[in-house]
């Protein structure tokens, strides 16, 4: 059984900040959001976790391997270097959606995302009993995206197709398994899953082929942290590429 | 009539680079992609253009106000500071999708996105006859996203709803008007449009309400550049907020 | 005759900010200072200017080619993305030290560097009559620094020698010519100079050899902007390398 | 007795890279160097170490608390995100200069800083027996730098005075104590020292007052890591400010 530790990272009072005293230049907001995400990716990633940009004002991280002290330091370093602060909620569960439910509630309980009074919440439960199989990462990509889309269609039509495939997969994986799926660029989607078998991944791929007409393949890995599970998943995806298969486990 | 100048930014040979000699740490890829986007946002944004992260290995920019020399400098500065290079294709049209079609073809004609032989393409047509009304930007957001989703549901379920709304809007606007819509974080979507009227925006909002059950509102702006059109659109969106309306023009 | 436009960039109220409510993590301050400098280097550099990190809370830029609107935008983009703001003073003169005197006074006149009441000063005079020969850049480096120091001594002893050479050059060039010299990394020093001849550069090099026992060579360039003068100076320095000379003009 | 673990970070083959195929834009080099330093500051700093930008192509870090695996990861993440790679040498000694001597030799033994054949060296000795008193950090600043210099002189003349004070202190501390001193911005210098007493710090301050006519004060801290020693030193420096003293120990 898995034990996924998820952290919700929510920028405090961001909506109001972006329009006070008046709307700010959009490209400055894009720059700040992206660099904040990049810093989180480095902080969490160098501790073997994963962060997904999600909505940028709200980001989801797999933080198996990071403890309370790590989370405190993360808040402090953001406070020292950005014009905004972040609240962090943490949860653990074998079903990722449940872990995120806990993480989100811990932040919501302390106040609204658009409250000037709520800042730097840090609450939740950490994975005290770490095991080698706590995390499952599934790395999906689109079969021959370059040949079918990137080298043939205009970029927006390629993008629409990838987005439709992603939207289909994200709904299916959440409803069927409580798994959380995130588009990570190119034609890649990374899912944080409970312990699923080969047949369940084949079913997910078939569902997306039927509903969105996008053909996916997937590599699946396991490990005590997101990085270890994820790098194994990437290697398994390379196996798919060489073997011509749709589902490979590390 | 509009005259939107769009630039496709495509990282050269990126797919192969990410797995050579073997798969790279995912969080390092996320960091690099995000910081590359942030640098593009600053370069283009400080010249009053807009860039959208799109798929990160392929990004779409509205570059009215940037000429060939600006594009050459952009390529050079990326080459000097990143482990990758970018190809740039440029097109102009009153329908954004057509401009992007041209921009994409210019890059595709030179070679595949996954070719080791193709690097730093720079080709296309620039908007030689700039006018005050060349660009239309529509800034959509979700009515009371904080109250309905962010402060109530777990983050992934909030995210799914926003994504479904975005997927519906992006398809509709592309098919009905050749407009290009991009999620920019939070509950915000920015569309690059031809010259549309109030009724057309109301129709788009109704379509998304029906298909995805997400209630949008929109502020619309015009200008010689994306920034000027976009900042006007943001102010119009604030008017929606104060007036309680769904569509406002700057 | 030269006409160097210099901008002083001073972070507002920085000293107090770094210790309020209590001293901040040093590495976070280093990160923020360096990234602020890097952003200035990109903004100014992509407009063909130069910025030198100087003391990080006070930075000196050669801004021929940047006007008042550019300076306003620079302030705005920093305000939108950093936890600090900057004041800018601008001056023009054929002697760089005089231009910097003006630039500094404009900021000082508005208030102290450690005043909570003074923020985002923008004042000074701009170079309205730009000419092809307005800027002189001299690019010095140490002859065979790698062979003599980097590959032989421990890093701090290499560093001390380079620093002593820099300290000697900076004092001499300021006193003799009103030129401003900045260490830019490695064994490189860039000086912003008035119109000097070959003999004057030889004299500077001899002075440093005598006083600090460091052997410099220099490439000198001219142009309407710092970048054009500076890239010419770099090429001239390469001529020194190939010709075995100590002073070369582009 | 102290046990300072120092790491030399040296960019591989950087000199040649900056001029191949021809000299690169100076502001792009400045941007890349500064951001590389900032990333090192975050990686090392979040593990409670310190990094000093030194010459940018060669940087010195106090890495008590970072082991071999941390150093390997640091190299990997740089390789994945920058157009350059770094070599790392590590040494431990109670006299910082000796630790740096070892660290530097480990890199030099493997090849020249300007060799195309040498890349990503990782060699040296780590501090296996960590103790609470391993590191001494002394944080110097200039008495009333704002009143005496920043608010009164032009920025370059302020800068010259601070530089002269720094040059004097760096030489004295290295020769008298094998301590390594680094300018960190503003009017601040941080020294990595062996175990020194109050009289020795007073002597250093008097030396600099005599030789460079710059009046320093200092806060001194100790700890198992640079951060713990350094934050204690910052607080001690605040004591100097409130007490009106020149030397305070945490």
Automatic annotation (TrEMBL), chains A, B, C, D:
InterPro entries: GTP_CycHdrlase_3 (IPR007839), Nucleotide_cyclase (IPR029787), Rev_trsase/Diguanyl_cyclase (IPR043128). It holds the Pfam family GCH_III. Transmembrane segments: none annotated. Keywords: GTP-binding, Hydrolase, Nucleotide-binding. It catalyses: GTP + 3 H2O = 2-amino-5-formylamino-6-(5-phospho-D-ribosylamino)pyrimidin-4(3H)-one + 2 phosphate + 2 H(+). Its EC number is 3.5.4.29. GO terms for molecular function: GTP binding; GTP cyclohydrolase IIa activity. It comes from the Archaea. Belongs to the archaeal-type GTP cyclohydrolase family. Catalyzes the formation of 2-amino-5-formylamino-6-ribofuranosylamino-4(3H)-pyrimidinone ribonucleotide monophosphate and inorganic phosphate from GTP. Also has an independent pyrophosphate phosphohydrolase activity. This is GTP cyclohydrolase III. It comes from Halorarum salinum.
């Amino acid at each position: 059984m898995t034990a996924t530790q998820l952290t919700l990272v929510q920028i405090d009072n961001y909506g109001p900040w972006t329009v006070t005293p008046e709307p700010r230049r959009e490209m400055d907001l894009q720059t700040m959001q992206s660099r904040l995400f990049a810093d989180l990716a480095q902080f969490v990633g160098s501790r073997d976790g994963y962060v997904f940009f999600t909505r940028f004002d709200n980001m989801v991280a797999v933080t198996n391997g990071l403890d309370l002290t790590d989370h405190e330091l993360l808040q402090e370093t953001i406070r020292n270097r950005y014009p905004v602060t972040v609240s962090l909620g943490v949860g653990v569960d074998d079903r990722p959606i449940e872990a995120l439910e806990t993480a989100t509630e811990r932040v919501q309980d302390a106040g609204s995302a658009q409250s000037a009074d709520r800042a730097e919440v840090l609450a939740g439960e950490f994975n005290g009993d770490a095991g080698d199989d706590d995390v499952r990462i599934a790395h999906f990509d689109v079969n021959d995206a370059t040949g079918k889309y990137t080298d043939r269609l205009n970029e927006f039509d390629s993008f629409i197709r990838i987005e439709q495939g992603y939207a289909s997969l994200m709904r299916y994986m959440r409803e069927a398994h409580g798994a959380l799926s995130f588009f990570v660029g190119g034609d890649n989607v990374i899912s944080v899953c409970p312990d699923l078998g080969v047949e369940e991944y084949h079913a997910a791929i078939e569902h997306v082929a039927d509903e969105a007409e996008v053909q996916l393949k997937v590599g699946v890995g396991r490990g005590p942290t997101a990085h270890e599970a994820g790098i194994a998943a990437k290697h398994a995806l390379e196996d798919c590429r060489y073997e011509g298969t749709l589902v490979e486990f590390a």
